[in-house]
Amino acid sequence: MLQLLRLCEHLRVCPQGNTCCTQEMEDKFGQQSKQDFENLVDEMSHELRSTFVSRHQRFDEFFLELLENTERSLNEMFVRTYGKPYMQNSEVFENLFAELKRYYTGGNVNLEEMLNDFWSRLLERMFTLLNSQYVITEDYLECISKYTDQLKPFGDVPRKLKAQVTRAFIAARTFVQGLSVGREVAQRVSKVSSTPACMRALTKMLYCPFCQGMPAVKPCKNYCLNVMKGCLANQADLDPEWNQYIDAMLLVAQRLEGPFNIESVMEPIDVKISEAIMNMQDNSAQVSYRVFQGCGQPKPAGMTRSARGVSDVFNARFRPYSPEERPTTAAGTSLDRLVVDIKEKLKLSKKFWSNLPEAMCVEDRVTAGNASDEECWNGHTKGRYFPEVQKDGLTNQVNNPEVGVDITRPDTFIRQQIMALRVMTNKLKNAYNGNDIYFQDSSDEGSGSGSGSGCTEVCPTDMDGAATEAPVVKADRSGPVGYSAPLHAPSVALPTVLALSALAFHRQWR
Predict the structure, then answer these.
(1) Residue 488 maps to a domain
(2) 133 found inside a domain
(3) What is the DSSP string of 368-431?
(4) How far apart are alpha carbons 396 and 370 in whole angstroms?
């Protein structure tokens, strides 16, 4: 090899002197080093990207299937329990689940307002059903809705259920969106673009030994670290915000395991709503009396409707809750198992971007390793590398001996990703406290990115924004108020069997 060395070819990157390279070869090495670097970053970030892609998909599938299972279970139980009266009014419950799904998938839905609207609609239907000897008009129903808070026709169920559903759905949606943002940031940042100064430093480190007749000599580790810290200076600046984002994700994950567990809220929701219905039935005479006092006595409907008995209205075939009858576990797993898995993965991803140079400069990839300090390429020849290793981040590269870095010009693209993480972290902190903040409705833009989607860049945010401050989108109330079949007589006192069923099926709130 030595006899093939030629006198200086005026190379632009590699050391001057005896060399076996031409300028054309050096240019090709420059392009190859750029490709090698980009491929290495892609390889090193593959597991991180795969983690966020796969876990986002698994959580999203789980939550959507949980909603579908719960709706199917409620429908089956209510058909069996209440029969035709339920089937004639099933759109009230269909709208409830449609709005819950729309909220979860990124829709601009105020959960508290939506749930209040559900109970108002249910009250209207129940009141009409239980007072079928009267003509109940739209205006009369409007009057009834004004007395909902005073009457508390469904007992304490709406208040408890609203608290549980809102915080569970806020946590679930925010967590899945957090996974989506992490996925997008990881995918974008891993697509590095090398600066000319970085390309020169990479060429000098990776290929100049070939030009010096030392193809088997690998770079010294500290030399490699300085090159990579210079080339990845902007990526390292992502780390502080990335770590805060990961911490916030872990906090919400804890909520999903505990009081904000959407699985423990949704699975018995049919039982809880049925309990509220039976509470309304038990107190129907008192509720009707107070409504009549406030709204006046409605007009009689005639003998045909009033002659029917309460036993025709409600079918008392309800059976107490049985654990083995619950719907199949969503997505073949449980929320607890999903959370345990993702928590471990999230913890491992902390400090990923600042640790990237160290991960790349390992013996089996680039360098000669620590054991070969005297037998490695130092950028000029084979021997020890003396300059100290620079710290992480853009501002610490001002004196980088290997890569010329303009510390006054931060990478705009990386700054955008930092802002996306910051916005998501704020949302996660609010979700941890049970508060909702504005998520842009993907349907407004006509280009939604699927379930759990929303802003992945900068969105309007308010750290102190609570659920009650979110833009209100009321549920559709255009459905028919009347019924296709004749309505039946009022309930003055429920059959004993229904009351016993209510006692048997009452469960302690979680």
Answers:
(1) no
(2) yes
(3) --GGGTTSSB-SSSBS---SPPP-SSSGGGTT-SS----TTS--HHHHHHHHHHHHHHHHHHHH
(4) 24
Residues 195, 200: Cα–Cα separation, whole Å: 9
Q: Has residue 203 been placed in a domain?
A: yes
Query: In this prediction, what percent of the chain has a pLDDT beyond 70?
Result: 76
Sign of the dihedral defined by the CA atoms of residues 221, 224, 230, 234, in that order: negative
Coil, strand, or helix at residue 301?
A: coil
Tokens matching residue 481: 């108020």
Distance between CA atoms of residues 202 and 313, nearest Å = 80
Report the amino acid identity of residue 178: G
What is the chain's Cα-based Rg? 33
Burial 451-478 (b: 16+ CB within 10 A, else e): bbbbbbeebebeeebebeebeebebeee
Q: Which two tokens stand for residue 476?
A: 């559709």
Asked if residue 401 belongs to a domain, the reply is: no
- E-strand ranges in 273-348 read 299-300
- The count of structural domains within the chain is 1
Tokens for 193, please give them: 């673009």
Q: Are the beta carbons of 70 and 265 closer than 8 angstroms?
A: no
* Contact indicator for 320, 501 with CB cutoff of 8 Å: yes
- Asked whether the beta carbons of 63 and 174 are under 8 A apart, the reply is no
Q: Given its phi and psi angles, is residue 314 left (phi above 0), alpha (psi -120 to 50 degrees) or beta?
A: beta
Q: Cβ atoms within 10 A of the Cβ of 36, count?
A: 16
SS (H, E, C) 426-472: HHHHHHHCCCCCCCCCHHHHCCCCCCCCCCCCCCCCCCCCCHHHCCC
For residue range 209-251, list pLDDT tens digits in order. 988 888 889 999 999 999 999 999 999 999 999 999 999 999 9
Stated pTM of the model: 0.79
Residue with tokens 């799904």: 101
Q: What is the domain extent for residue 228?
A: 29-302+333-396
pLDDT, tens digit (0-9, with 9 covering 90-100), for 158-191: 999 999 999 999 999 999 999 999 999 999 999 9
Q: Record the tokens describing residue 183, joined without a space.
A: 């996925």
Question: For residues 376 and 217, is the Cβ–Cβ distance under 8 A?
Answer: yes
* Helix intervals (H) in 45-156: 46-82, 84-87, 91-104, 111-130, 138-146, 148-151
C-alpha to C-alpha distances, 324 to 64, 81, 320, 321, 328, nearest whole angstrom: 21, 18, 12, 9, 9
Burial status of residue 303 (CB atoms within 10 A of its CB: 0-12, 13-18, 19 or more): exposed
Q: Is 37 in contact with 366 (CB distance < 8 Å)? A: no
